[in-house]
């Protein structure tokens, strides 16, 4: 089995090392694990691709590359340059430091990498580790992902719904903010929405007098509605959310046609 891995936290991120362990367990001793990850952190870039300028790519070790681009760029580099047309069986993106539940999924470079793989017709899974008080001071904040990741990925690989639709399914997996022993299991969950928790800006004045703006996130420990991802995570469950890149609000098409007709 050939697996391509990437992330948005950068080539040296600890979560990528966890993902490498997961991928190697899935691929097996006869398999191949290839890494193409951003040379620098690319958190929050979503599904950005760098089509207005070239990106440098460097070989760091056997089957390990860093590219000066987004996670989606890294997937494209892996598919069409590093692997030279040899398609991977699976693309894994993560393990992200922080959750990509609820509205975070829309900003996530981790999901951007998985989404690009799906658009290229390759099965893909994004994996993220929800953070919180119970894991911040733990010896390994990725423990839940490290211990439960391989079994979850194998379960999706063997039993997940993949299909060959134009907009293929990819999966968003979020591990709860608890230690591995306290994970209650997994739940298939819809993408939730954190009410009253939005991104905003915080002004900052540099010593030079110049004014800057920091992008500031909202509280992450806010549960979403019943049956959704962040609610499951905060209750101790791994959330598994099937996704597509198709942004059409299909439920509104007929009604809108009637209104405009």
UniProtKB/TrEMBL annotation:
Its cofactor is a divalent metal cation. It comes from the Bacteria. Keywords: Cytoplasm, Hydrolase, Metal-binding, Nucleotide-binding. It comes from Thioclava dalianensis. SUPFAM superfamilies: SurE-like (SSF64167). PANTHER family: 5'-NUCLEOTIDASE SURE (PTHR30457), 5'_3'-NUCLEOTIDASE SURE (PTHR30457:SF12). Binds 1 divalent metal cation per subunit. Coiled coil: none annotated. GO terms for molecular function: 3'-nucleotidase activity; 5'-nucleotidase activity; exopolyphosphatase activity; metal ion binding; nucleotide binding. It is found in: Cytoplasm. This is 5'-nucleotidase SurE.
């Amino acid at each position: 089995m050939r697996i391509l891995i990437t992330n948005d936290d950068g080539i040296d991120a600890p979560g990528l090392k966890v993902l490498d362990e997961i991928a190697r367990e899935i691929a097996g001793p006869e398999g191949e694990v290839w890494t193409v990850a951003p040379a620098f952190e690319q958190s929050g870039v979503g599904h950005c691709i760098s089509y207005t300028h070239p990106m440098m790519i460097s070989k760091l070790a056997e089957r390990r590359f860093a590219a000066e681009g987004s996670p989606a760029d890294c997937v494209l580099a892996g598919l069409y340059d590093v692997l030279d047309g040899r398609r991977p069986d699976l693309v894994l993106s993560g393990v992200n430091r922080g959750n990509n539940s609820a509205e975070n999924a829309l900003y996530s470079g981790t999901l951007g990498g998985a989404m690009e793989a799906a658009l290229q017709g390759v099965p893909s899974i994004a994996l993220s580790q929800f953070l919180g008080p119970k894991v911040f001071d733990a010896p390994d904040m990725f423990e839940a992902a490290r211990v439960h990741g391989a079994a979850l990925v194998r379960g999706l690989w063997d039993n997940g719904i993949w299909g060959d639709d134009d907009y293929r399914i990819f999966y968003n997996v979020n591990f709860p903010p608890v230690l591995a022993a306290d994970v209650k299991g997994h739940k298939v969950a819809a993408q939730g929405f954190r009410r009253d928790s939005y991104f905003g800006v915080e002004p900052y004045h540099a010593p030079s007098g110049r004014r800057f703006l920091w992008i500031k996130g909202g509280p992450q420990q806010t549960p979403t509605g019943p049956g959704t991802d962040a609610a499951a995570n905060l209750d101790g469950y791994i959330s598994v959310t099937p996704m597509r890149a198709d942004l059409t609000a299909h439920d509104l098409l007929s009604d809108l046609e009637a209104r405009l007709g």
